[in-house]
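for ur thesis appendix - Putative neural cell adhesion molecule l1. copy paste whatever u need, i formatted it the way the template wanted (i think)
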Amino acid sequence: MELPSLRGPYFDRSVSRNVTALVGRNAFLYCRVRNLGNRTVSWIRHRDLHLLTVGSYTYTSDQRFFTTHSPQTEEWTLQIRFPQIRDSGWYECQIGTNPPIGLSMMLTVVEPVTKIIGAPDLHINYGSTINLTCMVVHSPVPPPSIIWTHNDKEVNYDSPRGGVSVITEKGDITTSYLLIQKANYADSGSYKCTPSNANPHSIF
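the 3d part is after this line
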């Protein structure tokens, strides 16, 4: 016969306490509690000491916050629907002992960022090759498309000028290279990189 543990509830600290989420994509803070018994698990937001959830009940009027419980893994997961930058900060998973014991976790909410290397100004010699590199980071998925514009007109890779091409490599960081051979004065001006799922960025 297996005897019950005499140890009180405690946190499984193997769970990550630094969580990064993307703007608009559900955030998950995992809290694993051993030997909980008949105690409750609560989630508290540090910045205003706001009680968010107790057990499976949501105590905040912000219905983006709710808790799910998995008995098999002893996890009490705080979920935040459609997180925003302002949701970044410390959250505490708290066990209702006397006195309560807590485990703090840091949530960082980020949004996709577009950056052209060398921006805002880049100087190229006449007759040389222009190589503009646009990077998209923190994107939930690689952007389906990236549009390059020159002086607010979409770059035409099949123009009579020739020597204009683009190479795009998709992944956790998506990189798009705009190559313009034998640069001339008509190639001067503003270039903009516009991913389909992130804000654009320009270079002059």
